[in-house]
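_Full entry_
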Amino acid sequence: MAILEAANLVKIYGELGGEGSTTALNGVNLSIRKGEFLAIMGPSGSGKTTLLNVLSGLDKPTSGEVRIAGEEISRISGDRLAIFRRQQLGFVFQDFHLLDSLTVKENMMVPMVLEKRATDDIDRRVAELAGVFEIEPILDKYPYHISGGQQQRTAVSRALVNEPSIILADEPTGNLDSKSSTVIMECFEKVVDELATTVLLVTHDVFAASYCRKVVFIKDGAIHSHIVKKGSRKEFLHQIMDNLAVLGGRTDVF
């Protein structure tokens, strides 16, 4: 069952057909099944971030369509789109996007409060996720009192509280050291394996991508190729590096 389907996505910035126009996406087709753990990679300027923005409803395609959980989000907007994104999508960003005025627990609660969920339901869900991601000791602390890795675990937990159809992560290890990056990617593995949640991340980090089960490579706004993990993570990492080398992407990040 496909959780997310993108059909012939085109995104052009500037006047269509004009001299200054730029084609950021050029006929992208993508299908992601429930429980998949997928990374999108490619050289700078390849269209990775634009694709994530269009898939998440942050940006509208020039043509083509995006369906998530059966809903064609490319055709909805305004309050209806905002509600859909809050209920069906979980977001994890490079910069965490936690509210400094709220504790870890309160940050996790925000999406459920907006949905007017019952207090008992909120407390139960927060406790469950705090246990999964081992952040119970910091629930009453503020973001500026905890490490970057703990902040990102909090952000992943917050993204999950409303039990979304898919988690969308934009460079989730970009501001973390190698130890914290390992912890976060292991958290995503837990999300997929234990909670059966679908995870899509955009990354330039071959180390992070090696935790995924599938990597899709994009170049010049179009999907170039993809690989599926079959052996060890180390073997998959080398496959990823080989494919990036073909694309002209950086392979020195690891």
